[in-house]
Amino acid sequence: MENRLQHWQTVLKEKWGIFANLTQLDGEYDLNFLAKAHDGKGYVLKVMRAECESWLVDIQVKAFEHITARQPHLPCPVIIRTSNKDALLTVDDENGVQRLVWLLGQLPGRCYAYTAPKSDALIHEIGQVLGGTALALADFQHDRLDREFKWDLMRADWIRDNTDCIADPVRRQIIEDIHAQFANLKPELAALPKQAIHNDANDYNILVTGVLGAPRRVSGLIDLGDICAAPRICDLAIAAAYIVLDHANPEAALSALVAGYHDANPLVAAEIDMLWPLLRTRLAVSVVNSTLMAIENPDDPYVTISQAPAWRFLEGDRVHGGLLSARLRAACGLPVVERADRVRAWLEQERGNFAPLMGSDISDAPLGSLSVEESTWPQNPFHMPLEEAAKVGEEFEDQGSIWLGYYHEPRLIYAEPAFRKGPWKASDRRTVHLAVDVFTTAGTPMYAPLRGEVFIAEYRAGHLDYGGVIILRHQTPEGDPFFTLYGHLDPEFLERLEVGQVIDKGEEFCRLGDPSMNGGWSPHVHFQLALTTEGIEADWPGVGDPDEMYLWRAICPNPAALLNLPDEKVRFFPTEKSRIREGREAHFGGNLSLTYDDPVMLVRGWKHHLFDEWGRPYLDAYNNVPHVGHAHPRIQKVAADQLRRINSNTRYLHPAQTAFADKVLAKMPDHLQVCYFVNSGSEANELALRLARAHTGAKGMITPDHGYHGNTTGAVDISAYKFNKPGGVGQSDWVELVEIADDYRGSFGRDDPHRAQKFADLVDPAIAALNRKGHGVAGFIAETFPSVGGQIIPPKGYLAAVYQKVRAAGGICIADEVQTGLGRLGTHYFGFEGQEVSPDIVVLGKPIGNGHPLGVLVTTKEVAQSFDNGIEFFSTFGGSTLSCRIGGEVLDIVDDEALQENARVVGEQLMTGLKSLEVKYDCVGDVRGMGLFLGLELIKPDGAEATEICAYVKNRMRDHRILIGSEGPKDNILKIRPPLTIEAEDAEMIITTLDQILGELV
């Protein structure tokens, strides 16, 4: 090998004048060397196999140069000519065998096969590059373009005579069926114009740049070794065959690829319709070829291993070719079927002339919104019982008067698993209404808007299905068919109607059903238009995925014309996230941050899930504020009840105040007997400072580094997370910081049995410094388990030793339990219990109000008496009757629903899963936590904090609909801190998804 490298280095120096070090690359038949020149430039030296004919290199050289001349912006390799301006040389190799040799400029990036994530945006760009390349090659000519070889898709008939090599009869039948479809297609394919095409845009011939958070961009389309003349759709189909392999959503990937190609090199509908059978033909050619190779080389396991992705796709294929064609046409902005534009034009022309569906004019009927933003139906977006479904929209009911439901409206009423498109509650789901609803009393007759024949008349008895449903087939005067659907009907029509029966314009043909027969819904008709039924015959969807509306708006356009209504009357437009963001940037302070590179706009919540304006669900593994879950019905009920009564403050007596205090104190050690109610954890910590100083007469405070205790002036002064940041106020001289008790990254590690005492001993110099400066020691304040510091669990005995030292110095000990209290830790109700200490002051914040602004400070009678200096303490909203009712209800819910035990059980499941990832991935340095207070520290190969990796993982989790946060001084620790309602299924989703995303980094 060394001799070979030295030989070709010499050739490179003598013929091209390039001094470089060579590394051999992979190659199926030829030798390829990466040449790194001394000036930093990179090249690829290609040494062809001994028997290679010169035309094969000549055609590639000329094609590359042609592409560069026609489309210089494309990421195409540049031919590097010799010192004598030759593109191709014949040179003896180290054994004296003549070889054809040529040189290309190196392109940056790595193979698409090794790129992750394979996003729709990246695939769209691949399509653009491929389309641009085909456009550049459209006028390229070479006398060897019409090649006779097996990879020419036009010549795929050769597999017909070789299917016997497939031993498995089921697999053999798949290949035979694919060939039969190809044979039927071939005359149409042959009629298309031929041109030079790349012919092998596989996942190893596409280069991509971008790592971690940087956008992935196509940096190269290489290897023209299979170039030939064929219709350009063959080129796109070959690329598509590789794009879909092992892709989680092949239809979306194909849509992105074809749309990108169409942007650069517009396709016609007939070409798009050929893509699916040609894609499958390419995969059939691939598996037949590799099977034949395996017979010739039985000892080469790679040959059969390489087939696996293709067989997984072919055997697991659930794609309907006709519906896929409609999807790809829609992605390109073309009619989903040939007649679509004509039908839409005719409907527009006839608007106002159709018979009234409900027997009367409904142009003045009001609209009622059931949208995610404007409606609270259903209470639980994952299950709507029949008794609730029967009342949907009751707020708009007016003695049976007609009211309308919007087309294109995202709704959460489609709550059942049938609307889910994946295994998790936070998976993609269908939410967007594809019809117009007309609500009125059950039994109301309906009349055909135009002549049609019965296409389907059936009863669907499933929970929240259509009940009685009719589909009519219509024709325009030119003979173009289209369809209308009427759902939630009284099934009495089954005795009168049969398939093929003609219904005349204006003829009564059905009636609205009541909830006992219409699927369980409040009485209404779901009225939908479709321009094709291909691929949806068996299950006509009435609701679409918000990320697929480019397709469903095209197949099922707004039916307003058939109701003699203007489109804009019944079309719903969700609030645009971009407009809200612009308004925020215009009217909010610039230091008000947004989480994630692509922020989410959340408008609904339930337990531990959140929903955006389109109804997309997100698993909330981030927000500890909704401690007992978002939108808890008991809290809703208590808040509404109290607001109907009175909302006063602590200057007046009310039993809710003492009842709440009793519930809080029942959870505390006996020596803590006095409560102060305030409106936030920040206010509570500010008050804790005042209490400490009033009781001790001293001013100085000790606190761990990188702590956070609120955003008031005093709280910021003891929050190193804030005051030590660039632009921060800096450390006050009455504050002393001690190292956080982090036994993973701190001064004393887990292998040190005395680490708790050693960390605690760091308080001694802080006490001395405060005394030396004349401030004395008022107290020590810490998040019991530091959250902002990185989800730290201090070693056992740490706080006990610290508290002893602080009290000996005359100070008091404050436990900030905002993050860790109220059962989150599973095994303990408060963090200080896990450290076996009893604080002098305990601070509780946002979780105790479950999102309602509420904070609590609990202390001893002695400390409270020291603060009672004759000056009134009053917090206007602290201790309001509303806040006390809500806070008390939160404490009851934690107990009644066994949420502390749930935190223990699900927390253990998460910890087990996270520990398995720590073993699997080198970038996971540490996993720590208790209950549902968990941290996963991400590191670089040298052990340093991996801030960029953490940001990447956090944003990718958001892409997968899981919200988590990040913490730590270097922001490299993933923070998992969900509402306590999280379930085993959700923990499984977190671990599965995190595993997948960490795998993208390998």
What are the defining features of this structure?
seven-stranded mixed β-sheet; 1002 residues; single chain; 29 helices; 38 strands; alpha+beta
Tell me about this structure.
With 1002 residues, the chain is α+β, with helices and mostly antiparallel strands. Helices cover 34% and strands 18% of the residues. It has an eight-stranded mixed sheet with strand order 12-13-15-22-19-18-17-20, with no helix packed on it. A hairpin with a 6-residue loop joins strand 17 and strand 18 (467-475). Helix 18 crosses helix 25 (861-867) and helix 27 packs parallel to helix 29. It is flat.
Short structural description:
This protein has 1002 residues and is an alpha+beta fold. The chain is built from 29 helices and 38 strands. The chain starts with a helix and ends with a helix.
Would you spell out the secondary-structure blueprint of this structure?
Elements: H1 2-16, E1 20-25, E2 31-37, E3 42-47, H2 54-70, E4 79-80, E5 89-92, E6 98-105, E7 110-111, H3 120-137, H4 169-190, E8 195-197, E9 206-209, E10 217-221, E11 228-230, H5 232-243, H6 250-264, H7 269-296, H8 301-305, H9 308-315, H10 321-331, H11 340-350, E12 367-368, H12 386-389, E13 403-405, E14 432-433, E15 436-439, E16 445-447, E17 452-460, E18 467-475, E19 481-489, E20 502-503, E21 508-511, E22 524-530, E23 543-544, H13 549-555, H14 567-570, H15 577-587, E24 602-606, E25 609-612, E26 617-620, H16 633-643, H17 655-665, E27 674-678, H18 681-696, E28 700-704, H19 713-717, H20 720-723, E29 735-738, H21 755-761, H22 763-772, E30 777-783, H23 798-808, E31 812-816, H24 831-834, E32 841-844, E33 855-859, H25 861-867, H26 881-896, H27 899-920, E34 924-930, E35 933-938, H28 947-959, E36 962-963, E37 965-967, E38 973-976, H29 984-999
Parallel strand pairs: 12-13, 26-36, 28-29, 28-30, 30-31, 31-32
Antiparallel strand pairs: 1-2, 2-3, 3-6, 4-6, 5-6, 7-9, 8-11, 9-10, 13-15, 14-23, 15-22, 16-21, 17-18, 17-20, 18-19, 19-22, 24-25, 25-26, 27-33, 32-33, 34-35, 35-38, 37-38
Helix pairs in contact: 3-5, 3-6, 4-7, 5-7, 6-10, 7-10, 10-13, 16-26, 17-26, 18-25, 21-23, 27-29
